Amino acid sequence: MRTLRRTAPLVLVLAAGLALAAWLTAKAGDPALYPPPPGDDAVTVRLVANAWHSGLLLPREALARAAAQAGSGALVGVTERFGAYPALEIGWGDAGFYRAVPTLGALDWRLALRALFTPGGRPAVLHVVGIADASTFRGAGIVTLHLSRAGFGRLAAALAAAFTLRDGRPVEAGPGLYGPSLFYEAQGRFGLFHVCNHWSAGLLHAAGLPVTPLLDTLPRGLALDLAWRAGAQAP
Prior knowledge:
By secondary structure, the protein is an alpha+beta fold. The protein has helices at residues 2-25, 60-70, 73-81, 95-100, 109-117, 149-161, 196-206, 219-230; strands spanning 43-49, 54-59, 87-94, 122-131, 141-147, 165-166, 169-170, 172-175, 181-190.
């Protein structure tokens, strides 16, 4: 009981500190982009949240149109590469860890710690999967979001900027983890303060949604953040 009484104030101080840090780092949404106005032809996107990783499930045709309007030939090329599929699942992560750990059972803590704590961060890749049926994600947490056309266009522009280009074309980096998929070289550095879930949140923030980076570090936190601040239905 004495130990409990001694540690309780410390726990409360830590909790208050985390809550304050989350509040101070929270990013407001853009009401001109989200939510879409009544009657607007909204675009439905989904956050796919697994144990430690999240990605975005995007309608391919809408993405191709937005990329063409933004003048992103590289992203148009990616949508054409997966032209047989109605949707694309796209995620971002550490180039080494992402490829080596396809499932929770394959988790290697040495790789995970190296990915998180390498000074200056580590190279990143994008993972693109052609999706024919949403049942592919059975067992994953799915958060459905309805974006305005303008917001989706901003998301597409942010996504296009994430691809590393060579001679104006995205750089393929080998076969993906499951289904019809490919890795691509990506912009940005992976580290403790910029993990895959921050990347997913960043694209949604570009679309006008409010986000809280500290809470968004974990997939479940990101899902809850979208429920609390953007009105989404958490899994």
